[in-house]
Every structure is written in C-alpha cells, then in structure tokens.
Design brief:
- The protein is mainly α and 440 residues long.
- The chain has a single domain, classed as Amino acid/polyamine transporter I, CATH 1.20.1740.
- Helices cover 67% and strands 0% of the residues.
- The protein is built from 14 helices and no strands.
- α2 packs across α13, α6 packs parallel to α9 and α6 packs antiparallel against α10.
- The longest helix is centred in the middle third of the chain and has 45 residues.
- The radius of gyration is 24 Å and the shape is globular.
C-alpha cells in the first residue's frame, strides 16, 4: 500500500492500474489451484507439504524450507518498519507538544529521553506485544487482531483521500502525470505488483479451519479478499500519485507533512504490521516443523542404518504412481493416521516443540531486526524466489501434476501458463536485483 503510488509513478497511471488487476487475477488463480489441490488431501490435512507429497514427494521438504524462509524474512521486515516509524512518531508528537505549550516547535527532546527515538527500543517494546499472540495455535485465534489491523488499512485510505481532496500544495498538472511509462524501472517495479497479493502461505490454514470449506465458499473468500485488495491498492495508488505526481516517493505516508492526522496514520501502520507478524509466524512454524521432522528421520536413517524413506503423511512408503495405479486421472492422499492442520501425523505439534520453535523464531527475528536496519536487497531476493514460488509456481505445478493424465481443459492450460509466468517473473526479478547490486 505504501509503495503503490510510487509504483504507479514508475510505470504510468494506466499501465499501473492494469498491473494491479493482472497481478490480482494471477494471484487469485494461484489461490484457486491451491484450494483445488487441497481437496485431494484427506480431511483437514491440507498443506504445501501434503500437496507436495502427492505431486513431488522428493521436493516436499525443500518447498517447506523455502516457505519458512520467505515468511521469516517478511516477519523481520515488519519489525524493521516498526523500528523505522516509531521514532518519527515520537518526534512528531514532541513537536506538537512544544507547539501546544506555546513554543515554535523547534525545541529538542530532553537528552535523558534519548531511548524514545531509538529504533531498538521500540522493536523491543512491540515484541512484548507480538510474542504472546504469536503462540496462538489456530489462525482463527487472530481474527480480533486482524480486524484491528484492517482498521489501520481503512485509516490509511482515509488519509490519502483526505489529502487529495484537501491538498497541502497545488495538485500536479497533467504534464506531471504519465499514463504509460515503459522503461528499465518497470523490471524493478514489477515485484511490487506481483508480491502485493501474496497471501498464499495461509490459504491451507483457512481451508482446514473453515466450517464450510466447499469450493463455492472458498471461491467467494478468494474473490472478496483479492477484490477488496484491488480496490484499496487503486484508491491509495491512484490518488496518491495524482496528489504528488512524479515527485511521489516510495513511501506515501512520508510524503505528508507532520500533523496529528498523519501521525495517527503512522501509528496505524505500526499496528497493522505488528498484528501481521503472527500471520507470518504461523506458516513459518508449520513449515519449520516439517523440515525438523525430515532432518530427524534423516539423522535416524544415517546414524542407525535404518532402511526407510521419509514420509510423514502416509501409513506406507510408496510413491504417487504406485499408490494409485488404477486411477490415473485422480490423485488423493489417504492415510489411516489422524493429521493436523498442516499434514503432520500427530493431532498437533507437541507442546514443548511448539514453544521452542515459536521462541526460536521470535528471538531470531528480534536479533536480526535490531542488528540490521536495511533489508531491502535481501528481501528482494527472498521475495523474488519464495513469494513467486508460493504464488505462481507451486499452485500451477500442483494442479498440473494432479491432472497430468486428464484431458487438456481450460484450468489445466491456465495452470501451465501460471507456472511458466512464475518462472519468468522469478528470472526477471532476480536478474534485475542482481544487476542493481552489481551496478551499485
């Protein structure tokens, strides 16, 4: 949301609007393919791991590791945003307090309060709020905090609309607004549109926890979620660009002069990312559990010489083709064991292991966030690989493999197109990021 006006400035108003809609359609298609793949698993055991075991068993752990790293990196970026915004909030409130006391707003904060403008202090404070809600096991336990975070989205939309209707400076002329602008900046701007709709890491938890997880209900959820995001991105992107023209920066909230309205908006963004952190911790923890299970079984195999293959989902070790030799057009995961929401053989992750993994994720995120203040390049590489794989490559490849022997229908053709599009985006974004690093 914050970067969307700058993205539109880089590619033009019409091309930017088209990219928002196109990226939304591609992501919605990926979500649809994931829900269709989830329906092939037994009961409420859908996960990337479960679908991988149905389609590409040899890569199941690799997929989970990539998703865990992606979610871990995004969670760190949320903490960094908190550390970057809160000192500015304190400075703004301090200035307004000086003015309210009859000063001119040019006074300095008391040196004894230096910690209030230290990013590490605020990351530490907010970790005390984030940590408890990150230990919640079910995704629906976060519905109250997510509703509050959505309130922050509404407030940011209000700020952008308000300052477009009541601008602080004259609006840019028509000459300062480009309708279509296609240049080298398009390649570095493309990830903003592509990753704006990446929510696929949580779709299986939604599928597992819905009381009615029929395809019609899932389609309504996908349509309403992606559709509302399109509306929000268009309002903020278009009006933000029309307010500042080509002079708009990469963070729209920083373009406005300090005021109580804007300061509250910055606080709202902090609340938004604070309550979004557990939504990244949830799939990160689930995927990390699968990686640890694989590492544990590999250790047992190599240490004790046991001749077995890693398969935590089925009661027998057989590959996908052998398991269903007489049903080439249908693949379904069957098991005699009870599975959890993420495909583990037990009903839930053991309490001690659950606490240790969550604590490790929180501590590692905290240490990196207070140590590193700039993760743009790192997250660009993580996003170019992890987000693209989760949004496009895996959904398309899962659906195609599950329907490999079926006739070439429209959805099957679209799944191949989505998969190829994902590989193209990954190649283009990685190349652009590598070039940016090498060129300084």
């Amino acid at each position: 949301m914050l970067a969307m006006p700058g993205a539109l400035a880089s590619v033009g108003l019409l091309l930017g609007s088209f990219m928002i809609v196109f990226s939304a359609c591609a992501s919605a298609l990926g979500l649809y393919f994931l829900t269709r793949s989830a329906s092939r698993t037994e009961g409420r055991a859908a996960s990337f791991f479960a679908c991988s075991k149905l389609t590409y068993p040899w890569a199941a752990v690799i997929f989970d590791f990539a998703i865990a790293i992606k979610c871990f990196g995004v969670g760190i970026s949320y903490l960094i945003i908190i550390g970057d915004l809160m000192p500015g909030v304190v400075r703004s409130l301090s200035t307004m307090a000086f003015i309210a006391a009859g000063g001119d707003g040019s006074g300095e904060m008391d040196p004894i309060l230096w910690f209030l403008i230290d990013r590490r202090f605020w990351i530490t404070i907010f970790m005390g709020i984030i940590a408890p809600i990150s230990f919640l096991r079910r995704l629906d336990s976060l519905k109250a905090t997510s509703a509050l975070a959505l309130g922050a989205v509404v407030y940011l939309v209000f700020i952008v609309v308000y300052y477009y209707v009541n601008p602080e400076q004259p609006l840019p002329t028509k000459e300062e607004i480009d309708l279509v602008k296609f240049n080298s900046h398009f390649l570095t701007t493309l990830p903003i549109f592509v990753f704006a709709f990446t929510c696929h890491q949580n779709i299986f938890s939604v599928y597992n926890e819905l009381s009615d997880n029929g395809q019609s209900m899932l389609n309504r959820i996908i349509t309403s979620s992606i559709g509302s995001a399109v509306v929000v991105y268009h309002i903020i992107g278009v009006l933000g660009y029309l307010t500042f023209g080509n002079a708009v920066g990469s963070n729209i909230i920083q373009m406005y002069n300090a005021s109580l309205l804007v300061t509250i908006g910055r606080i709202a963004i902090v609340i938004l990312v604070m309550f979004s952190f557990p939504l990244q911790c949830h799939p990160c923890r689930a995927c990390l559990d699968k990686v640890l299970l694989a590492a544990g079984e590999l250790w047992e195999t190599t240490r004790f010489g046991k001749n077995k293959t890693y398969n935590s989902l089925t009661a027998h070790d057989a590959d996908d083709n052998d398991a269903h030799p007489h049903t080439p057009t249908s693949v379904t995961l069957t098991t005699t064991h009870q599975l959890d929401d993420h495909g583990a053989p037990a009903s839930e992750i053991p309490q001690v292991k659950y606490v240790v993994m969550t604590t490790a994720i929180l501590i590692a995120s905290y240490i990196i966030a207070i140590t590193v203040s700039e993760l743009e390049i790192v997250l660009s590489f993580v996003g170019s690989t992890g987000s693209t794989a989760v949004s496009f490559i895996l959904p398309g490849s899962f659906y195609y493999k599950l329907h490999k022997n079926d006739p070439w229908t429209g959805p099957k053709i679209l799944s191949v197109c989505l998969m190829l599009y994902g590989w193209l985006v990954m190649f283009v974004c990685l190349s652009a990021n590598i070039h940016r690093v090498l060129s300084g």
